[in-house]
Design a protein that fits this description.
Length: about 400
């Protein structure tokens, strides 16, 4: 079987690319090395941006185990602020949580309904000649075969063995994240807000680098996780599981976190950020989602950016198949146009918060200032309305001023 386009990976990036290609009448074959429902280390959190992408793909929000959330409760130590998702002309005023084990297979199913072939339990590896993928080896339980697609979409996630196989590399000077999560049973599983802690302390009260979250799943369990970014001091020597342990122990009593309510061993993963992986296109291949480093450095969100970059890539792939040999290069330009400025500000921001003094000031001073926090949420979740977009630099300046006032 030789399809025009082979999509490698059936997470959000691959499923969305396959969906938009198939909807455009293109013959597309997606291969996923695992079987749905497959586990993925993730907070399971969907912002309004991600909801918009799901809405556009015709996702059925009512028939599923999806839990709607209406905002964020942020903590800095014991200081707390509750913020609703902002009003926006394009995005809904709600987000959600849904286990990735359920979400990803469902979205791949939407691509299948549009006509994509979705093959599970199959691992793809490239055969490369002069920057062109001349063949792809597919390995499944029955053995090995080679296919020869015209174009390959690489959506194989943060480890991206296929991506490295075609020569893609991560920029070491760009930020990078690590995070870990576990599931706990909780009487507050139906909380309608996601929660984050910006100031994690160990049992002795010493500050630890990193952030923590509680994302209620609405099904009797909560997703509790912790992460850190490479700009944090000494980050390589810090074990994310230890941060999660400290955070879980410090959580308010109402979540009822104990060893007995934790049913699964926490698992972790990498967060390649700020479009740090490249080149993003070759002669007949293109990177999307985590394989391209698409995670938002401000908040560690990657599901939406996998959907968005997949959707964007599908347009350039369609154009290339229609005979425009230079089409794929346009993807680079659009990524820069849509995300370039935003990521530049985000990189400055995560560098600043890597300094413990700045982080402390930001969290303790900033959290008392509601208007500033409302803007911060808008910027961090990339929810500025088009007419406000130029404001992100101003907001950063405002955050910087807060830092200076507090230091
Ligand atoms: C602990 C943690 C918490 C996170 N929390 C959130 C969150 O709450 N919200 C959010 O938006 N983002 C979160 N993220 C980021 C998010 O999980 C990723 O950005 C997102 O999954 C990227 O989607 P993707 O499709 O690019 O890659 P993936 O979801 O990783 O999908 C890649 C797929 O490719 C398959 N694959 C790999 N290699 C091959 C191969 N050779 N052949 C065939 N198939 C292959 C894999 O099995 C996998 O299914 C979190 C990440 C971590 C680590």
């Amino acid at each position: 079987m030789n399809s025009q386009v082979l999509v490698v990976g059936g997470g959000p990036g691959g499923a969305s690319t396959a969906y938009w290609l198939a909807r455009n009448g293109i013959d597309v074959h997606l291969v996923e090395k695992k079987h749905y429902p497959r586990e993925k280390a993730c907070g399971d959190g969907l912002t309004p941006r991600a909801i918009k992408q799901l809405l556009d793909m015709g996702f059925d929000f009512d028939g599923l185990d999806l839990h709607r959330v209406y905002g964020l409760r942020a903590y800095a130590g014991d200081l707390k602020i509750e913020l609703e998702w902002p009003d926006h002309s394009a995005y809904p005023k709600w987000g959600a949580t849904m286990r990735r084990a359920d979400l990803d297979g469902t979205v791949a199913g939407l691509a299948e309904k549009q006509g994509a072939i979705v093959e599970q339990g199959t691992t793809a590896m490239p055969i490369l000649e002069n920057d062109r993928v001349t063949g792809v080896t597919l390995t499944d339980a029955d053995g090995e075969r080679t296919v020869h697609p015209d174009l390959v979409v690489i959506a194989d996630g943060s480890n991206s063995r296929f991506g490295r196989g075609v020569g893609a590399k991560r920029r070491r000077d760009f930020p990078y994240g690590m995070a870990v999560r576990g599931y706990w049973e909780s009487p507050n599983s139906d909380d309608s807000m996601i929660e984050s802690q910006l100031d994690i302390r160990d049992a002795e009260g010493r500050a630890m680098p990193g952030y923590g979250w509680v994302f209620p799943l609405g099904d009797g369990e909560i997703n509790v996780g912790a992460g850190l970014v490479s700009t944090f001091k000494g980050w390589k020597d810090i074990n994310t599981s230890r941060i999660l342990e400290a955070y879980a122990q410090s959580l308010p009593e109402r979540w009822k976190i104990t060893e007995e309510t934790n049913h699964t061993r926490p698992i972790g993963g990498k967060l390649p950020m700020s479009l740090s992986v490249g080149p993003k296109v070759g002669r007949n291949w293109i990177l999307v989602g985590d394989a391209s480093g698409a995670v938002n450095p401000f908040n560690g969100e990657g599901i939406d950016y996998a959907y968005e970059t997949g959707r964007m890539a599908a347009r350039y792939v369609a154009d290339a198949l229609a005979g425009n040999e230079l089409a794929l290069a346009g993807y680079n330009d659009e990524l820069e146009e849509v995300y370039g400025d935003y990521h530049r500000v985000a990189r400055i921001f995560v560098k600043a918060i890597g300094n413990p003094a700045i982080m402390k000031t930001l969290t303790t001073v900033g959290i008392r200032n509601r208007p500033l926090m409302e803007w911060t949420l808008k910027v961090m979740a990339n929810l500025l309305d088009p007419e406000e977009a130029g404001m992100s630099e101003h907001i950063y300046t405002a955050i910087e001023r807060t830092v200076n006032v507090g230091s």
